[in-house]
Every structure is written in C-alpha cells, then in structure tokens.
Design a protein that fits this description.
This protein has 35 helices and two strands. It has helices at residues 36-43, 59-62, 105-108, 134-157, 161-185, 193-209, 213-225, 236-245, 249-262, 268-285, 288-301, 305-318, 321-332, 351-360, 364-391, 395-407, 414-428, 432-440, 447-463, 467-480, 485-497, 501-514, 519-531, 535-548, 553-565, 569-582, 587-599, 603-616, 621-633, 637-650, 655-667, 671-684, 689-702, 707-735, 749-754; strands at 87-88, 91-92. It has a two-stranded antiparallel sheet with strand order 1-2. α16 runs antiparallel to α17 (414-428), α18 (432-440) runs antiparallel to α19 (447-463) and α20 (467-480) packs antiparallel against α21 (485-497). Residues 1-13, 52-81 and 737-762 have low confidence and may be disordered. Residues 112-135, 724-762 are annotated as: Disordered.
Length: 762
C-alpha cells in the first residue's frame, strides 16, 4: 500500500501536523488520463526499478531514507533512478516498499487490480484417473465384490434362492481374483480379511438356504479352520444347525458344544440359545433326561416360554408327574415383561395425553406385546391340556390342579378357558352329561365367560337335535354378549332348523355386522338365500366366502350348485373343475361333472368323469347305471355286463340289474349264457313276468322243449296279474276315496352332502 503514498514537502519544521489537510494532486485518480508523467511511466520503462541481484548493492545503503522529517534535499540512488519521495517536474514520485501488498509485477505492467485472481478464469480440470493402474483395478474389483454380496443377500430376502446362490458364487470367484492381484501388487498382510470372511459366510449361507448342505459345510470348514478369522468358531452353531436338518443328531450336539466352548460367558443370550438347541436335539434323539437337564439349566439362568414348554414336553415323555407339575409352575412364572393394559387407558381429559395414548395404543411395540401374550397363553393352555389327564388319578382332578395354579398366577383369565376345555374333554369321552354340567357352572360367571359357555351348550343341544334347548341357550348367549358372532350364528341355526329362513337371515346379518370375517355366518346366510330362492344374493355370499377360504371344497361346491340352479352349466362346470383340483378323489363332484357334460350332449367328457367317479367309489348305483347304458348305446354290451353285475351285488333284491345282465348276454349273441341267466332269475323271482317272456322267446328261437312249460307259467302269471288289477280297480271304485299323492323332489346326494349348516361351537 506504500507505493501510492507521497511524502509532502516540509513547510514548517516546527508544526508537526502541518500539511495533513492539503490536497495532493497525486491522489486525483480521475485526472490520470491527462497526467503526462503517469502515462509516460505506464507506456515506457521510465521510472521502473530494475531487478535486484546479488551483484548490485542495495539502494538502501547508498542513500538515506527520506521521510517527512528528513532532509529537504533529494539524493539520487546508486542505480540512477530518482530517490523515493523526491519531486521531479513538479510531481512527487510515490513512495515504494520492499514488497507491495496485494499487487504483483503484472499489475505494474498495465494489468488491472485483481487481488483474488478472478481474471485467470476457471480452475484447470482434475487430473484423470489412471484406470490401468493396478491399485485402481483392485479398488474397482473390490467394489464389484461388495455389490455382488449385497445383491445375493437381497435376492435371498426376496425368496429367489437360486439367484442368491449364483451371485454368491460369482462374488467368491471375483474375490479369489482380487486376492491374487493384491498378492502381486502388495504384501499379503494388506489382504482385506473382512471381505474374504463376508464372501465365504454369504456363500455358505446361500448353500444352506438351497439345501446344498455338503457344500455349505465345506465352506464353513474353510472359515473355521482359518486362524486369521477372529470369532470364526461361532459358525459351528450354523454347522450344528445343518447337521440337525440332516438328522445327524450326534454331530449336531458335538458342534453345538464346540461352539458353546468358544463363546465367552459374557455372551449370555447366545449361550442360552445354543443350549436350547442342544436340548431340542436331545428330544429328537429320545434322550429326554439330558434334554430335561439342559432346559432346567436354561430356566434357572434365563427362563423363557419356549424352554419352559419344551421342559414340560420332556417331563411328559418320561412320565414323571412331579417334574411335570414343577415344570408347569416354572412356565407360569416366566415374566412376560409387557406393560399393563391400564397404560393404554387415558386417565384424564388432557388432549395431549389422549393423543399420546391413541398413538401408542396400536403401534408396533403394542402389537409385539399382544403377540407375546398370545404366545404365552397358547403355551400354557397346550401344556395344561397335555398334562392334566396324566398328573392325577383322573383328568378332572388334573384339570382342577391346573386351574388352581393358573388362578394364582398372572394368567387368571385363562382359568375359565381351562374349565371350558375340561368340558370339551368330557365331550371327547362321550360324557355329554358331565360336559353340560361343567358348562352350566358358568351361568353365574361374568358375561364373557357366560356367553362362551352358553354358546357351547347351544352347540351341544343342536347336535342332539334338541332345538328348543339349543334355542334357549342361544338366547342366553346373545343376552350375555350381544356382540358374540358365534352366539348369533347358533341362534340363527335354531331358527333355520324351524324353517323361519327370513328371521335366520337377520341373525346371520347381525353376526356379520359384529364380525365381517365370521365364515360360519357367511356360509349359512348363503344357504338361507338358496332356501328363499334369492340366488343372486346366495351367489354373492358364497363368492365373498370364497375370497376368504380359497380352497374350501364346500364353498366351491355351493357356488357350482348355485350356477346350476341359475341354469348356467358352463359356469357350474368351471367351478366344479376348481373343486376337483382341491379334492381330486371326490366321486360326487366327478359324477356331477359327468351329469353336466351329459346334459350338454358331450358324451365323451361325461364318460370320462363318470368313469373316474366309478373308479373312486364303485358303489354309486346312478353312476353304474349310466356307464352300463353308455356301453349298450355304443354297442359294447360285453363291457356293460360287469357294471350291471356289480349293481346286482349292491342291490340283490332288484331284479332289473340281473335282467340287464341277461339282456347284455342276449344282445352280444351269447344265447346259452343269456338262457342260463334267465333261468337263474326265474328261480329267484318266479313271479317276474318279463323274465318268463324272455325265456319263452329264447326257448322258441333255440327250439327247446321247455318252451311250453314257460308259456303255461307266463299265461298263469298274466291272468293272476289281470285279476289283481281288477280287484284293485273295483276297490277304488267302491271306496270312492281319492288316493293321496305325495309330491316332492329329492336333491342329489352331491348337493345334500355339501348343504349343511355350520355350527359355531368351541
């Protein structure tokens, strides 16, 4: 900055501050264009300081420093240029410093003032990477290996196990190439062991997922035997799991124990899980005592529901009653570690608190707590049902012991469910009176339990066709809990049984309003609409049910039947095809398909399904009759004989099947066999006119002497038949009464076998 400073000439030696208010024309930058001295200095080398070298002595030594307080005379420098601060041609030369601040030599040559270097333009581009260098190739290959491992894991999570294995193999191949390249470029100590470990571990996991257990074990062995991998011994747990899948239980236990030895005691949770695997393996090998020791150790160190349940199973297997009781008490005592339900009830009217409670009422943590509680209740109920019949002299005493233990625990509400299960056990033992008495004990309980017991009582009485009692207990169940869909469904069933279909439909609708997924109510309302001939609504109900129960044979059957009633055989055939894909051996469904194809005129398809139906159930008379008639129509009477013979075995008192056998012999030209068959029929049914007629005809054609005998018998039978008809006719005329007629239609066995009410019970 000192280059633009000019020293003012000294005017008054005594006034130190004189001259500060005077205007120096050197600072008049607006007149620089008219300043001849300045323009000359810019265009020429006039006034420029030559570069300083070692051979040229510094000017500071040969001249005194001129200041505002210095001498009044100016001295020339050793290089001949005017001294700093002197006045030439009436203009003072600017004062200079050793180095200008913010200026460069280029500025002195006429360039503009640019201390930030903005006039130099953008920065030059970065130097391009040399992709051919070994380090860059290694870096790119390592990146590719990591990407392949990630893609393999993602494919496995998406369920594409084959793609996951291919990616894992590809990653393994590229990782080996990477190791060889690193060995050529750097020392072996610089190899990325973490990458090698992850590649091998992922490959072994994918082999195991694809059930290629031998390859998986070999890969795990490579990891475990490599001492450079820290904590690789834990993978022996995975190897033990593979041996467990292969049912090589001795090796599985061996590797579990080896892994247990290599895991420090600080990893308590991991050790507990391994011990649980050991206990399960002991159960599979039948070593229940060793399994009990393992599970008892777990329950003493870190009790959990699975270990407690497995302990009960092991004690049950050896039949130790006392150990079963102790194990059940340990299972009951396992802490759930979940919050109480009161936490999710807002205690005040504070809107912020209410919002918080609503937010956490059904969040993921709350759902996890519900699942954990449901799992605990399932284990306890299953264990109680398992041990109750064997821990005491009778199952009733055993159930009572379990109920008392449960009542004294945190699962008090399960006691009533155990009582209901006790009633179910009575039912399985065909002791209906005890079951009813047990359920009647709940009539004075709280509304939820009372409703459940009354629902089951209604179910029992409905099965015994005691519809009045069933209706009474259904009313009690509904009154106790109006929102119980099972109670409403049972009430609808009792009304349905009495023929009041409209009222039954109302109960089913109410059950569905309370629980839209109540499949029993949805099925029964479909049946009700069929009874009311509201086929469109029935079809809609069954289609909704089909969306819930995709592979229900009964639902598919009802949909096909509704389409048949709607006179849409093509749709009926399509739904029956779905039905036989679910139950391919259902003879009724196959015969119904044959019937529909026969009504459509497709005899070949009808024959195929009728024959399949006969193959699975060779006692259906309708199918046998159709197949026999089909062979007669197609002129294969010999093949029809076997079907009519089977029909005669099924219905030996029906003469028509034996007549059909004889007729087939006669049509095929085997007259002697036909004659013998007719004679046998005549022996069994001597009053059969049709048989005698064929005997007379055959004997006449063959020329046998018995023709006269059979002709005489035929005339006598015809005369007796005529007299009988006359007596019947005269009796009708004299009585003057009218014969009552019974009208009705019997549905096919196919429909009736599938058309039944669902009953909501236990």
């Amino acid at each position: 900055m000192m280059e633009n400073v000019h020293l003012a000439p000294e005017t008054d030696e005594d006034d130190l501050y004189s001259g500060f208010n005077d205007y120096n024309p050197a600072y008049d930058t607006e007149e620089l264009e008219n300043d001849t001295g300045f323009q000359q200095a810019v265009r020429t080398s006039h006034g420029r300081r030559p570069p300083v070298t070692a051979k040229i002595p510094s000017t500071a030594v040969s001249r005194p420093i001129a200041t505002g307080y210095g001498s009044k005379t100016s001295l020339a420098s050793s290089m001949g240029r005017p001294m700093t601060g002197t006045i030439q041609d009436g203009v003072a030369r600017p004062m200079t410093a050793v180095r200008a601040a913010g200026f460069s030599k280029a500025a002195l040559r006429g360039s503009a003032f640019d201390p930030l270097g903005q006039s130099r333009g953008p920065a030059p581009p970065l130097e391009a990477k040399n992709e051919d260098s070994p380090e860059e190739k290694i870096r790119q290959l390592e990146k590719k290996v990591n990407e392949l491992v990630e893609e393999s894991c993602i494919a496995n999570s998406c369920g594409d196990l084959k793609l996951a294995l291919e990616k894992a193999k590809d990653a393994g191949r590229k990782e080996r190439v990477l190791v060889r390249q690193r060995e050529q470029v750097t020392t072996p100590e610089n190899i990325n062991l973490d990458l090698t470990y992850s590649v091998l571990f992922n490959l072994a996991s994918q082999y195991s997922a694809n059930e290629m257990y031998a390859e998986a074990l070999n890969t795990y062995q490579v990891i475990v035997k490599n001492k450079m991998f820290s904590n690789a011994g834990r993978l022996k747990v995975n190897m033990g799991n593979i041996y467990l899948k292969q049912r090589n239980y001795s090796k599985a236990i061996k590797f579990y124990r080896m892994a247990l030895d290599q895991i420090p005691s600080v990893h308590k949770e991991m050790r507990i899980k391994i011990m649980q695997n050991i206990g399960i393996t002991f159960i599979k090998t039948g070593q229940y005592s060793d399994a009990i020791n393992s599970f008892e150790h777990i329950m003493s160190m870190a009790p959990n529901l699975k270990a407690g349940f497995n302990l009960i199973l092991s004690c049950f297997a050896i039949g130790d009653r006392e150990k079963m009781k102790k194990a059940f008490q340990k299972l009951i005592a396992v802490p759930l570690e979940i919050d109480e339900d009161d936490k999710y009830i807002s205690p005040s009217d504070d809107p912020h608190t209410n919002l918080l409670v609503e937010a956490i009422k059904n969040d993921h943590l709350r759902q996890m707590e519900r699942e954990r509680k449901a799992m605990a209740e399932k284990y306890i109920m299953t264990a109680a049902k398992l041990i109750a019949p064997v821990i005491e002299s009778s199952f009733a005493v055993g159930y009572n012991w379990c109920v008392e233990v449960v009542k004294a625990s945190q699962y008090v509400e399960l006691a009533n469910d155990l009582e209901i299960n006790k009633a179910i056990t009575y039912l399985r033992q065909k002791d209906f009176n005890q079951a009813v008495d047990t359920l009647k004990m709940f009539e004075k309980k709280d509304s939820r339990v009372k409703s459940a017991a009354a629902t089951n009582l209604s179910f029992l009485y409905y099965l015994e066709n005691e519809f009045a009692q069933a209706s009474s207990y259904a009313d009690l169940a509904v009154n106790s809990d109006r929102y119980n869909p099972s109670a409403l469904t049972n009430k609808g069933n009792t009304v349905f049984a009495n023929g009041d279909y409209e009222k039954a439909a109302e109960f089913y609708k109410e059950a569905l309003r309370n629980d839209s997924s109540c499949t029993e109510a949805l099925y029964n309302i479909g049946l009700t609409y069929k009874k009311l001939n509201r086929l469109d609504e029935a079809l809609d109900s069954f289609l909704k049910l089909h969306a819930i129960l995709r592979n229900s044979a009964q639902v598919l059957c009802q949909i096909a039947n509704v389409y048949e009633l709607m006179e849409d055989p093509n749709q009926a055939i399509e739904w029956l095809m779905q039905l036989i894909s679910v139950v391919p051996t259902d003879s009724q469904a196959l015969s119904k398909l044959g019937e529909l194809y026969d009504s459509e005129g497709d005899k070949s398809q009808a024959f195929q399904y009728y024959y399949e139906s006969y193959r699975y159930f060779p006692s259906n008379i309708e199918v046998i009759e159709w197949l026999g008639a089909y062979y007669i129509d197609t002129q294969f009477c010999e093949k029809a004989i076997q079907y009519f013979e089977r029909a005669s075995l099924i219905q030996p008192t029906q003469v028509k099947w034996q007549l059909m056998v004889a007729s087939c012999f006669r049509r095929s030209g085997n007259y002697q066999k036909a004659l013998d068959t007719y004679k046998e029929i005549h022996r069994k049914f001597p009053e059969n006119v049709e048989c005698l007629r064929f005997l007379v005809r055959l004997c006449t054609d063959i020329g046998l002497k018995e023709v006269q005998e059979y002709a005489t018998k035929l005339k006598r039978l015809e005369k007796m038949k005529e007299m009988r008809e006359q007596r019947i006719k005269s009796g009708r005329d004299s009585g003057g009464g009218s014969r009552s007629k019974r009208e009705g239609s019997a549905g096919s066995d196919f429909e009736s076998s599938m058309t039944k009410n669902y009953i909501s019970g236990f």
